[in-house]
Design a protein that fits this description.
With 476 residues, the chain is of the alpha+beta class. The protein has four domains: 89 residues; 103 residues, Beta-Lactamase (2-Layer Sandwich), CATH 3.30.450.20; 74 residues, Helix Hairpins; 153 residues, Heat Shock Protein 90 (2-Layer Sandwich). The protein has 13 helices and 18 strands. Helix 8 packs across helix 12.
Length: 476
């Protein structure tokens, strides 16, 4: 309701704003429906468009529908869920006001859409908006000429000569004058005024079209910024707590190590060793939190992705069930990146374990690399259950997990995000329920260090052969 009120206050001539998924044939958003409501059937005025391509992107006039009579303008937008169509329904009086500023004295003028219906008219505007223009006007548009003069009669039965101009948007402007005005010497100047008015209206329509496109781009940028600010705010909060907790654990671990050196009783040593193991697990969790929150800077150095993946192969295979196949597709030009080796290894292992948990009945995991201009992408993909939209939007938040109690900390993907961001890269997730997920880590490309330049490239991890079930490693 608040967003609707803000749009109405800033744009008093906007009757409605609609976002439509043409592929699904559904209206996903409308200012005239409660926010968050289920998709509705596609609006007939939008179903008649060609998806915003070509002249039909300017839409047309409609008498029926919410907020009508109105004039629809359309523009395509790209979202994370595919191509959408952004539509705005405008008050026809906006176009009539512009038309009336340029109508010569004694003339009748009108704006007609690509379907031959009135958008605005200097006479009987309210009765004629959205209704068909005269047969003479529609024949002139259908003839394919961009401009000209044709004789005819208005809806009121008045004989006239009409000058018209058709723009590339499919709209056309018509100015009708009585025959005696055409025969006067002022006819040439009147026609010049009419053409100037038409050009001005064409420019106004183009400005509206570009304004709609900029609005869609601004909304996408604001959504990305809000998500980044949210993660940074959570990171700062958790970073302060993790830093103090890490100091306490350091004291506890040091004290337990000293006690173990002085203990002779086997039972007491066993208790102390269990305590030390628990403290070390807590130390590992705080380091993950600090990496996410940037409280602990990573040790950045050139990392050979091929050697790293090859070296982790046995560990990854031991972390998987027998029904999960692991394969590799490493591009020869996507090898050296600037990152922290230990944190990057932990990130890959977290993604592999998450993929395993998303495939309880078995499946495939592929680790691949791809080169970019100044970056290298490391991709971990699976064909598991995938993620719905509400989970995908929060997947990188610390402590957020969909696993049962005791099965996950919610820090695995947060560690992946922190490691990528501190390396100067980013993480993107592509997922559809029932069709798996792709985690794309983008890292800055770098040159091989001098000591590695003379060495042969590390062999790419081979395609796996069927393996017997191995013991599973712990998950994050």
């Amino acid at each position: 309701m608040r967003a609707r009120a803000e749009v109405a206050a800033l744009n008093p001539h906007w009757r409605n704003v609609i976002v439509t998924d043409l592929a699904r044939g559904a209206e996903t958003f409308s200012l005239r429906r409660p926010f968050g409501s289920a998709p509705a059937p596609i609006n007939p005025a939008i179903a008649s468009t060609d998806g915003g391509a070509g002249p039909r992107s300017m839409g047309g006039a409609w008498r029926e529908g919410p907020g009508c009579p109105c004039v629809y303008l359309h523009t395509p937008i790209s979202t994370t869920h595919g191509e959408m169509l952004l539509s705005v329904a405008l008050d026809p009086s906006v176009f009539r006001s512009a038309l009336m500023r340029h109508v010569p004295e004694g003339a009748t003028a009108a704006i007609v859409d690509a379907n031959g219906n009135f958008i605005a008219r200097s006479r009987a505007h309210d009765e004629r908006v959205g209704t068909p223009a005269t047969r003479d006007a529609r024949d002139a548009i259908a003839g394919g000429a961009r401009s000209g003069v044709y004789p005819g009669a208005s809806h009121e039965g008045l004989r006239n000569y009409t000058a018209f101009y058709a723009s590339q948007t499919g709209w056309s402007t018509h100015i009708a004058m009585a025959p005696n005005l055409i025969e006067r010497p002022r006819a040439i100047s009147s026609a010049a005024v009419a053409i100037g008015s038409i050009v001005a209206l064409a420019f106004a329509a183009a400005l509206i079209f570009f304004a709609l496109r900029d609005l869609a781009q601004r909304r996408q940028a604001e959504a990305r910024l809000a998500q980044t600010q949210k993660l940074e705010a959570v990171g700062q909060l958790t970073g302060g707590v993790a830093h103090d907790f890490n100091n306490l654990l350091t004291v506890i671990i040091g004290g337990l190590n000293m006690l173990l050196k002085r203990m002779d009783d086997p039972k007491q040593r066993q208790i102390a060793e269990h305590m030390l193991e628990a403290a070390q697990r807590g130390d590992k969790l705080t380091k993950q939190l600090l990496a996410f929150s940037r409280g602990k800077r990573l040790e950045l150095a050139p990392v050979d992705l091929h050697a790293m993946v090859h070296g982790m192969e046995e560990l990854m295979r031991r972390s998987l069930d027998a029904g999960v196949a692991l394969s590799f597709r490493l591009h020869p030009d996507a090898r050296w990146v600037m990152s922290d080796l230990s944190q990057l290894e932990l990130a890959v292992l977290n993604l592999v374990i998450n993929a395993r948990d998303a495939m309880p009945d078995g499946g495939r995991i592929e680790i691949s690399t791809a080169p970019g201009k100044d970056t290298v992408t490391l991709i971990v993909a699976d064909n598991g259950m995938g993620m719905p939209k509400e989970v995908l939007e929060r997947a990188l938040e610390p402590f957020f997990t969909t696993k049962p109690a005791g099965k996950g900390t919610g820090l695995g993907l947060a560690q992946v995000y922190g490691a990528a961001r501190q390396s100067g890269g980013n993480v993107e997730i592509e997922s559809t329920p029932g069709k798996g997920a792709r985690f794309i880590i983008t890292l800055p490309r770098t040159q091989a260090p001098p000591e590695a330049a003379s060495q042969a490239p590390a062999p790419a991890a081979p395609e796996p052969a069927p393996r017997r079930r191995q013991a599973r490693a712990g998950g994050g």
